[in-house]
Structures are given as C-alpha cells and as structure tokens.
Amino acid sequence: MNVLLFLIPVALFLGGLGLAAFLWSLKSGQYEDLEGAANRILIDDDDDPPSDR
Amino acid sequence: MGEIALKNLENLTEPLSRDVGGDCCAGGALALAGVTSPEADFSAFVSADPTAFVETDQDGNAMLHLLVENMHCANCIKNIEQSLKSNPAVIDARLNFSSRRLFLRWHSGAADVRNLVRPVIALGYPLTPYNPELMKTASAEENTKLLKALAVAGFAAANVMLLSVSVWAGIFSEDMGPATRDFLHWISALIALPAVAYAGQPFFRSAYGALHAGRVNMDVPISLAVLLAAGMSLAETIQGGEYVYFDASVTLLFFLLIGRYLDKAARSTARSAAERLLLLKAVAATIIKPDGTRQTVPVEAVTPGSRVQIMVGDRLPVDGVVASGRSELDVSLITGESLPTAVERGDLVFAGTLNLNSPLEITAMKTGDNTLLGDIVRLMEAAEQGRAKYVRLADRIAGFYAPAVHTLAAATFIGWWIFGGSWQIALLQAVAVLIITCPCALGLAVPVVQVVASGRLLGKGILVKAADGLERLAEIDTIVFDKTGTLTEGRLDLVNGADISAEDLDLAARLARSSRHPLAMAVARAGNGSGASLDVEEFPGEGLKATLEGKEIRLGSRSWCAVSETNETKTGQGPELWLNVTGREPVQFLFRDHLRPGVRNAIASLLHQGFAVELLSGDRAGVVEELAAAAGIDNWRAGQKPKDKVDRLKELVERGRKVLMVGDGLNDAPALAAAHVSISPATAADISQTAADFVFQGRDLSAVTEAIKVAKFSRRLVLQNFSLAFLYNVIAIPLAVAGMVTPLLAAVAMSASSLIVCLNSLRLRIARERARS
Which residue of A has its CA nearest to B158? Predict the structure, then answer.
C-alpha cells in the first residue's frame, strides 16, 4: 500500500492543477463573452497582410 | 433563409427590403432590416448626451462604454470593430457579443465622440452610452462566486470519490486493513471539510436567511444533510468507524450547485434584457431662460413653470402646455393610437410623446414622477407587487417536503433509540435518513427544464425574461390581447396602391420623403420617391406643400387638398390622404394597419385549446370591432385607458381566472404587470418589454402559441421530474429508516436520481430536434 503515498498526492496535485487553471480562466474573464469567441473565429482578419512582404 | 435586405442608397432614412428570418446575414444586412432610421438613431444617441459618459484613463485617453443593438453574427462584430478602428484616433474597440456591449478608447481631443461612432450607427447599429458602474450588477458577481464554488465542489467530489471507490472495493474484497481505511478516511476528510465549508455557503446562507425569517425552504434540508453528513463522518473517522459519507456530502453539493448555477444564469439573462431601459430615460432638456438664452440641463433640474424647447424628433421630457409653435405629436406611447395628434398654443402635452414635425416651446407643468408617464410607471409598479407574491412550484413543494423529512428523521432517531438501544446508533440512522432524502433531484428538477425550455424558445425568437414565467404561463386559462402593435403590426400601410397610377405614387412619395408623419412614411415606403428633392413645406395637422414645374402640389388631409366632402365616397375605417396637383383630379390614398401574419391561426388554435380570448384596446369602437372580426375574437372592448385595462384584469382575477396579457404599448405596461403572465413583441415600447415576462421577435403571432406549448410541456416535465425524485425517495427512505443504507448505496442512489432527472429534462430538446427533421 506504499504506492498510495505517491498516488494520492499525485491525484490531488493533478486535480488541484485543474482547479487552479479553471479559477485562473474565470478570473481572467474568459467566460465573459462565450458567444463572441464562437463568432470571432469566423472573421478572416488579415492582421499581417501578405502584400506587405 | 431570409432574403437579403438592400440598402436604399437614394434615401438613407428608409430601409428598402425587410423580413429576413434566416440564420445567416451578409455584411450587416440583418442589422439594416431591423433598423428604422439611422438618422433618428443618431439623433437619439446625441440627445442621450454621450459626452457625459466619457471617462479618462490614467494615460489621458478617453473611454466610453456603449450598448449595441441589432447585432446578429460574426459579420456584425467585424463591421463594427473595423469601422471604428479605421479611424486613426481610435486606440481600442472591443465588442462583447454576449452582453452586447462595446468598449471604446481613443486619443481624447483627436476626435469628437459623435463623429467617432457615426459610421457605426449609419451601418444600422443603434448605440446607447452607459455608465459601467451602474451596470455592474450584483448578479454577475454572484454568478462568479457560484462558478468558483462549483469548481471547488467538483474538484473535491472527484478526489473524494476516487478514495471512496477504493474504500468500497476494500470492503467487498475484505482485504483492506482498518489502518489503510482510516488513512483514506482522513484524507477524504481533509479534502471534503474545507470544500463543504466553502462550496456550501450559498445554501447555508439561504437556509439561515429562511430560518431567521421563520420560514423553511429547500435549502434547509440541503444544509442540514450536508452539514450532518460531514460532521457525522468526521466523528466516525475519529473513532475509526466503517461508514463515512464524505463522498455523499460533496457530490450532493456539486449536483445542487449545478442546479443553482443554471437557475441564476436564467435569471440574470432575464435581468440584462431589462437593463437597457434604465438608461433610456430622457437625460437632458433644453430650457429657455427669461433672457432668451438656451441651456441644456438634466431633466430633474426642470422646474414647473420653466420654458422647455422641444426640437423635431425629441421626446417631451415633461408634461406641460404648448407656449408657442404648432406641431404634431406621436402619442402612441401614451394612448396606443397610431395616428399623431396636432397640437398648438394652449394644448396640453405629455412627457414621453414624440415631436414629429416642427419645433415647439412648452411651459412645464408637471415634471419627474408627477407626469402622466410617471403615473403609468407607478401603476405598473403597484401591479407588479401583486405578482411578486407568486410562489414557485419548487418552493411550494419545499413547504411540505422539508417538515416531512425532518419529522421522519426525528422519528427514526426516537425509534432506533427505543428499539436499538444506543443513542449513537440512533443518531447515525437519523443522519442517514436526512442524507438520503436530501432533495438533490428536486434541486435539479426545475432549473434543468428551465434552461432547456428557454433555449428552445430562444431558438424561436422568444426571450424568457422572468425566471418563473414558464411556470406561470403553463397555468393560464384566459388570454387578453391588445390591438395596435400586438394583433396588428402597428404600422400603417397603403392599401389602395393598385388604384393609384405609378406617376402619382412616385410624386407623392417624393413629397412624403421629407416628413416623419406615419402616413407620409407609409407613402414613401410604397412609392419610389427618387429624383431631386423638392422644397417641401410641412403644415402640422394639415399636410405637405411643394412646387414642381410651376405647379403647386399638396399632400395631406381632405380639407388641405380642398376636396369636397362628397367627392369619392370610397372611405375605409382607416385614415386617408389626398394628393392634389393643380389642374388635375385629386387622388385618394387609403391606409390601414395590417394584422400580423398568423393571427387568425393563432387565435383559432388558442380558442380550440379552450382558452378564453379577449381584446382590450384604447382605440375607437368601430376600428376595434372590425379588427376583432378579422382576427376571430368575439369578446372585445374599445376605448380602454391604462387603468381600465388593469381594472378589467383585476375583475378577471377575482373570478379566479389566470390571465395571459399580450401587449406592446406603454399604455399596456400596467396591464402587463398586473396579469398573471405577460408577453410583448420586441417592437414594443421599452417599458412594456420590461414589464413583460416574455418578449418575442419577428412578426408572427404564432410565437404566443409556441410559448404556451413549450410552457405546458415544461410543466409536464417538471412534474415528471418531481415524481421521479419522489419515487426514488419512496424506495430509499424505508431502507434508510431500516438502517440498511451504506455510503455506497447512498452515493449510487443519489447520483442516479439526479442523472435520471437531467435526462428526462433533455427530452424537451429531443422533441425539438424531431420537430425540425
């Protein structure tokens, strides 16, 4: 059962990582405009037009 | 797919084609279809005094927050952002598509805000400035808190379940030592207890609030079950016991938080729909000081007796008497009448009406809340209070569920104490009963159905504004309609266009183009008013006059065009216009407000379903009678003032009826608030949309039947969900009382009941897909 001493911390760490990532994404406002993000992907923005070369 | 709207380049104030119902839009075409007049929108924007909303950031750049209307798709985002960014003064333009808000930052001084946003408004997107501080609602913060709690509960539930599964496996295989088991229990406790303390707060607070007020809500048994499960498990862990319920307490919280979050999300979309109204109050008025100078002041600063100048296209900020000038006012906001009234010196005018054709000076008599508009708003608020008493189905069930469960747990405790001997075992069994009866599925039963139903209605262009609107809609037995703008489109159209020669029609349209009178606008829509613009004079209440090729042309009332009363007996119920060109026979134009498409079918289907249908209108009896006949409604009343409508609704309520009110005008707003449930079209006055529980887009009245259908289906699903939850309780409670519930059984049973409830709710979605294919 010694393996538990590794596995439980590993499981908790991974879970905690997911939790932290979610809380970070929430804080950085990534859920504020869900529809907008879905639509923006359709915009063909030539931020760096090839003609500039 | 809808047809694509074309931009009328000849005349920017009039969009050409409309009725675009498809899913796709090309370059803002849809926006154009929904727009009435970019120029009017621009003057509305200017009159909202945008400079007052401009803020300065730490770098000295100007910032402005705006609400955007008419957005539909990615193209709209692109159009708006790019047209703004093409201006060199703009630093940043960012659109939030979900909340329909635009953030704009530019080099202050480099550009005037009005010129900056003008291209966007010209594209067909009306803008309204707002103050972000005022818009920051508590609900958004609450949503974030719930999401965080949900994340923590999810994390804890997953990890504790991981450990619990090992413990259960150990119990079955009987090769796990007590030391390992206790170790796993301790780790579970370390994860679960902080998680419960954090994620359980929304429930604990609500339960405490309810108990404090001497009531019991669903959160009381939830909080009790979670707290007791965690506390008892901790005690068991300390004593090295076999049964702990940490997994149950956190998964319970996880499921319940999902339900709570869905519920809150539904409510906050409803609220954001109403937010716009707070911003659209007239903010500024121009007063004329005794020395003749003009000054723009906030509406609140206007005192009775002061002179107020009303420009063309302005809404009147106060009630008053016309001091000088002559014009026509659009009074539809107050009376629901589609035709404007002519006013001149000495006439009473009311706040909220729109000045159509020439500048007026009025002497203010009543301001602020004392205006007729204020009275209507008060009437509405009073009516709304009655509806706030409505108790939601889930709360009604909680009213008897919670005491029943608590009594059962107490009985279990006493029973086990007497027959089982030790009070510790008795307590254990009582807590098991509380855990197993925790209304997890009940907490999900309503929100999940609500979310699915709202989604389905939104797909049909119906916005559910009140969270409990669907519940109330499912209970109705009587439907009351308003006339103008509800059964009809609220827009006058030329009916005898075929009898008029194209030449006359075009000439009339050319004349009419310059006017904002509804009849003139109808003529302009019907004809092709191209050609050099004429020098048109407008005489309020009479008509238009212009000279072309040496001939005088008049468009206006019968007397304005000098047509004798006996001439052309063809008269309809609707209003008329005459075109008189010197030396030619006068031409008559007849107008009528059209029924919305689908009215007859919708009414027939409602009558068929056994609803009592009634028509209340502020219009004249003749017009209402004709329209009622056309729509197939036998029961109608004409000449109803806002108060009469509310009284009629009250009378119906006293007879035990549950009334659905469908209306659009400001004059309907109190009635909308007084009814059991209400629907208004998206073209309605803002205040009516705020008062209504549902808002439907598009012209077709079948939205009403669709909403009722979905509401009934939802109610059936909610009741089924409750039955499923009770069925689960009927099976689980005897086991719990008998002391046969293990943590494994509790976890499986609770999760299963929650899942079944969710799956059952999704049937509403499946029904939609089937209807589509």
Answer: A15
The sheet carrying B341-343 orders its strands as B341-343, B327-330, B354-355
d(CA B229, CA B289): 73
Class of domain B491-595: alpha beta
* Beta-carbon contacts below 8 Å between A and B: 56
Burial class (CB in 10 A: 0-12, 13-18, 19+), B686: middle
Residue ranges of chain B that CATH labels 3.40.50.1000: 456-488+596-712
Looking at the DSSP assignment, which residues form a beta bridge with residue B592?
B493
Spatial CB neighbours of B503, under 8 Å, sequence gap ≥ 6: none
Tokens representing B264 are 């809150």
Please provide the CATH number assigned to the domain covering B284-316+318-366: 2.70.150.10
CATH code for residues B29-136: 3.30.70.100
Task: Determine whether the interchain pair A43/B148 forms a contact, defined as Cβ–Cβ distance below 8 Å.
Answer: no
- Start-end ranges of CATH 3.40.1110.10 in chain B? 491-595
Q: Determine the distance from the C-alpha atom of residue B181 to the mean position of all C-alpha atoms in its chain, rounded to a whole number.
A: 54
**Min CA distance, B65 vs chain A (Å)?**
16
Give residue-wise pLDDT tens across range B25-52.
544 444 444 445 666 677 767 766 677 7
Residue B512 · residue B521 · CB < 8 Å = yes
Tokens of B613: 């249908």
Cβ B77–A36 below 8 Å, yes or no? Answer: yes
ipTM of the complex: 0.81
Q: Is the dihedral of CA B723, B727, B732, B733 positive or negative?
A: positive
Residue B153 corresponds to which tokens in the numbers above?
A: 């509960």
pLDDT per residue as tens digits for the range B354-368: 787 788 888 888 877
In eight-state DSSP terms, residue B108 is B
CATH class of the domain at B456-488+596-712: alpha beta
- Residue A52 touches chain B, beta carbons under 8 Å: no
Query: Catalytic residue numbers of B?
Result: 482
Nearest chain A Cα to B96, which residue? A33
Smallest CA-to-CA distance from B423 within B411, B414, B436, B433 is with B414
Which strand (E) or helix (H) includes residue B735?
A: helix B702-737
Burial of B462 (0-12, 13-18, 19+ CB in 10 A): buried
Chain centroid to CA B522: 29
Backbone CA torsion sign across B392, B398, B399, B401? positive
* The token pair that represents B200 in the structure block: 């359980």
Cβ atoms of B128 and B45 closer than 8 Å: yes
Distance from A10 to chain B by nearest Cα, in Å?
Answer: 11
B273 Rama sector, left if φ>0, alpha if ψ -120 to 50, beta otherwise = alpha
pLDDT at B434: 82
A36 CB within 8 Å of a chain B CB: yes
C-alpha angle with apex B425: B419 to B431, nearest 5 degrees? 110
